[in-house]
Write a structure and sequence with these properties.
single chain; about 240 residues; alpha+beta; Arc Repressor Mutant, subunit A; Beta-Lactamase; 2 domains; five-stranded antiparallel sheet; two-stranded antiparallel sheet
Length: about 240
């Protein structure tokens, strides 16, 4: 007896694979490419039909100059919902140099944020709330390396936010002291200038100071890498942050 295929499950499977392939390859994904890359048990025609359905539902969009499709904001949001964030935290550990050789806590934090930005490939932030507020920010140069920001309008918008709206970004981060990882996609961030981006954030409100650690990158962010790098650095900074304020 033939196995009954759940239509919704197959749609979700194909959507997630399209997003994963697009994250890695930064180009529209075709049904043929998807079939060959992941050795799927469906024909290319079946995958194409599923992708057409996903497009009609608003999860994918079709670029007229290509036979492939790319995820929409709705598609990325659906993909993020499916991520089991607690299972991916050890995929990309970030090793920091020994704290014993550095006396200044501010320098330790700066070095950690540099390491986080380099390992993840995205801009890193740390907002701390204690006697007063502090915001540390590193890795803006990595935004320039993302193909999305070859579009000068997008690039100007992002740098406007980073230069003019850092205080608002700090206020945003100070709302995320939850230990769990939160991923804000596009308009969920709340800033028009970075509505083409995603923000991965996780914090802590247990210590004598509260803080939120975050990564900002394009919506085509490697979320698995970002979450893993973020959590790796966060675990190593706990004691340093407590002593900062």
């Amino acid at each position: 007896m033939a196995k009954v295929v759940d239509t919704k499950e197959r749609e979700l499977e194909i959507l997630n694979l399209v997003v994963e392939a697009y994250i890695k390859e930064t180009k529209p994904i075709s049904s043929t490419h998807l079939c060959q890359k992941y050795k799927l048990p469906y024909s290319s025609a079946t995958i194409r039909n599923v992708m057409e359905t996903l497009e009609k539902k608003g999860f994918l969009s079709h670029i007229h100059t290509s036979s492939g499709r790319v995820p929409t904001t709705k598609g990325f949001k659906q993909y993020v919902e499916c991520l089991k964030k607690e299972e991916i935290v050890k995929n990309y550990p970030v090793e920091l140099e020994s704290y014993n050789t550095i006396q200044d806590n501010g320098q330790i934090i700066t070095n950690a944020l540099d390491a986080l930005a380099i390992k993840s490939g995205y801009a890193s932030f740390l907002a701390i709330s204690g006697k007063d507020h502090k915001l540390f920010f590193r890795g803006a140069r990595f935004i320039l390396e993302q193909p999305e920001f070859e579009d000068m309008r997008r690039l100007k918008n992002v740098f406007y936010a980073l230069e003019v709206k850092l205080n608002q970004i700090e206020e945003l981060l100070l709302n995320y002291f939850d230990e769990q990882v939160k991923i804000l996609v596009g308009d969920e961030i709340g800033f028009d200038e970075i509505s083409d981006c995603s923000l991965v954030v996780s914090g802590s409100g247990k210590a004598k100071v509260s803080y939120a650690l975050a990564l900002l990158g394009p919506m085509r962010m490697d979320y698995v890498r970002a979450v893993s790098c973020l959590q790796s650095i966060k675990c190593q900074l706990e004691s340093v942050i407590e002593d900062t304020l």
